């Protein structure tokens, strides 16, 4: 150690090293949980998106049962990562459905951009007063664009 280094300084350095390892472990856990989540960013879990939900689970502030898009299989996968008893997803939060995507009926679109603003993953493109379209591979099926549309020109269709 450097000259003048006190025991308390050495202890503080050890604490910093230990706490950075704990942070790395926590970040790794959040990443693993986030990868299992469906990335719909729908908010049905009560959080602003999948990442905040993963962070809450990693902190022990949320259970594995809160994600309807993930269904029972998702809840089981999250439980395995957290090493907790698996439980079915909470059906009061929504219904698990097969994968769907948004489809803009372009002939009816007035180009208001409200769906673009509502989309959490930027899967809808178009300009003001021009028709909009959905980039299907980016659409997570969260359905947040549907109520935002004032002319009801967005339908949810099977992703298959």
Automatic annotation (TrEMBL):
Binding site for [4Fe-4S] cluster 3: 119, 139, 142, 145
Gene Ontology, cellular component aspect: plasma membrane
Domain 4Fe-4S: 25-84
One GO MF term: metal ion binding
Residues holding [4Fe-4S] cluster 2: 109, 112, 115, 149
Residue intervals of the 4Fe-4S ferredoxin-type domain: 100-129, 131-159
Cofactor note: Binds 3 [4Fe-4S] clusters.
Name by which UniProt lists this protein: Rnf electron transport complex subunit RnfB
Organism: Noviluteimonas gilva
Gene: rnfB
